[in-house]
Amino acid sequence: MDEILKIRYRHGEMTIILENFFPSSQKNLKKLLKVIELDWDHKDELIEQITTWISEHVQMYEQMAKEYANKYVDIRPKALEMGEKVQKMESYLDSIAAWKKTPEDKKLKERFKESNAEYRHLKNKEHIYHSAFTKYHRKKEGLQKNLKLLTEGK
User: Fold this and answer.
1) CB 7, CB 36: distance < 8 Å
2) What is the pLDDT of residues 101-119, one digit of tens each?
3) Average confidence (pLDDT) over 131-141
4) Is 28 strand, coil or helix?
5) Is the Cα dihedral 101, 105, 110, 113 positive or negative?
6) 98 in the Ramachandran plot: left (φ > 0), alpha (ψ -120 to 50) or beta?
7) What is the pLDDT of residues 53-69, one digit of tens each?
8) pTM: predicted TM-score of the whole model, two decimal places
9) In this structure, how many other beta carbons lie within 10 angstroms of the beta carbon of residue 57?
């Protein structure tokens, strides 16, 4: 699908990169439609090109949002479980550190550091997946609103 929209009118032309323009505000979309009205020979083709592009991207963003939601749902319990494990290890280390120092303590502290690093890694991935889901979900909703405005304007 063509990602660039070329609008030609009596006194000039305008090029819109659809990926950069959409999703857009209602105000900006109405301005774009007014400019498209100036290209009366290709008006219907331009609107059809926009609606096709939006429809394809709504589906793509929905798929990506689902993908990241699934990843988030998969990693969330692992992060919670690792968080509990780290917390228990930390409280155990605090309790034994007060009354004895043994060679086993060093091994335990090493395992604690590894577990804590793994926990931070899981929490980071969890945050990334949640942010990506939110981003694609918002883009999808914005494009759906734009598509609704376009179809109402016909």
Assistant:
1) yes
2) 677 778 888 999 999 999 9
3) 98
4) helix
5) negative
6) alpha
7) 999 999 999 999 999 99
8) 0.84
9) 21
C-alpha 34/C-alpha 26 separation (Å) is 12
Q: Within 10 Å of residue 61's Cβ, how many Cβ atoms?
A: 21
Q: Which residues contact 64 (CB under 8 A, 6 or more apart)?
A: 132, 136
| In the block, residue with structure tokens 């032309």 | 13
DSSP-assigned states of every residue in 63-111: HHHHHHHHHHHHHHHHHHHHHHHHHHHHHHHHHHHTT---HHHHHHHHH
Both tokens of 98, joined, read: 């007060």
- Radius of gyration for the chain, computed over Cα atoms and rounded to the nearest angstrom: 27
Q: Which two tokens stand for residue 74?
A: 């998969």
Mean pLDDT of all residues belonging to the chain: 92
